[in-house]
Amino acid sequence: MKQLSLRRRVFEVVEGGSRRAALSRIFSAALIILILVNVIAAIFETVPTMTQTYFQVFAGVEGVSLTVFAIEYVVRLWVCVEHPRARGVPAWRARLNYVFTPSAIIDFIAIVPFFIVALGGADIRTMVLVRLMRLFKLGRYSTGFQSLFEAVRRERHALVASFLVLTSIVLVAASLAYIAEREAQPDDFGSIPQAIWWAIETVTTVGYGDVIPKTLAGHIIGGITMITGILMIALPIAIIGSSFAEVIRQRSFVVTFGLVVRMPMFASLSSDVLHDLLPMLRAMTVEAGTAIIEPGEGDDALYGIAEGVVELDSDGGRRRLSVGDSFGASPDITDKTRADPALALTRVKLLAIDRIDLIHLVARYPGLAGRLKPNVQAGIVMDDGSGGNPA
């Protein structure tokens, strides 16, 4: 078995590799706890009495946090070249690309106070806003954060269009209010920029009451602006809400790039192959005791186990397959062997690719059959519970 490099082993712990899932969970849990403690400390440190009483505690928390976050950033920068997206890319370019990813930017912001204080730019207690930004580090571990960001990303064009419409309404309302109210209230509506504040709070239906129209025309314009604002503000809210609900539904178990590349049968594939493969894969959740492949059923799909245990009833006897193993259809179009019956022993999460899609993929990338076939066979002939995954 090929010995994994230290960098690869660290990468699997930091990024959640299946071979070190337990260590990865401990690592993630420790960071989550530290982030929460750090944010809570930053909040209470703004209370003068608590700062005087617990100054040493707050300073200790901040010191430990900065040290850990700095080490984490350096480690992630070191191991990012092991990411499947970095295949075939020079190490310096892979690291440069990583530095500008959203998660890396947030990680860097988390340690910015250290550099500012080290350069004598400010007292670390005045960096409350930057320190509270560390809360966004939880986005790496929270499906809720990820789902919200994904929902916004998916609907970004519609949201931009909604923003442009709202901006247009604000400008039109401000212009009309300026015309109607400039003589009656020159201090509040003496120019369009001054009237924009009133238009914004009216369109958003906030209505602070600090600026109100006094003329009849101004009242009419204000009423129309309120009604229009209610209708238009609902538009982006509905867009994000429906998209967020859809993403949450999909994330109950969804095919992601990270999930696919952790599967042994896909781990060594190039980025081009993975790009074509991802749309073909479908996620399945099978409850314990459910037959995945019935006896005598055709091998219409290749299955990879992402979670759970499957029992395969082959000619050599019953065998248990676990995370990383695969079974079902062969990528070889000439292989007429019928797939062995498979039963879910626990609740199982599977990645499945239909045989016809698999054949088309192999036709497009002839070398793919040789890479997948050992994994398919390994899952079937596994005797000792080791999973039969290639080294």
TrEMBL record:
SUPFAM superfamilies: cAMP-binding domain-like, Voltage-gated potassium channels. Pfam families: cNMP_binding, Ion_trans. GO terms for molecular function: voltage-gated potassium channel activity. GO terms for cellular component: voltage-gated potassium channel complex. The keyword Membrane applies. It is found in: Membrane. InterPro entries: cNMP-bd_dom, cNMP-bd_dom_sf, Ion_trans_dom, RmlC-like_jellyroll, VG_K_chnl. Gene3D superfamilies: 1.10.287.70, Jelly Rolls. Its main location: membrane. Residues 265-362 form the Cyclic nucleotide-binding domain. It comes from the Bacteria. The keyword Transmembrane helix applies. Keywords: Ion channel, Ion transport, Membrane, Potassium, Potassium channel, Potassium transport, Transmembrane, Transmembrane helix, Transport. PROSITE patterns: CNMP_BINDING_3. GO terms for biological process: action potential. It is a multi-pass membrane protein. SMART domains: cNMP (SM00100). The chain crosses the membrane at residues 21-44, 104-124, 158-180, 216-240. This is Voltage-gated potassium channel.
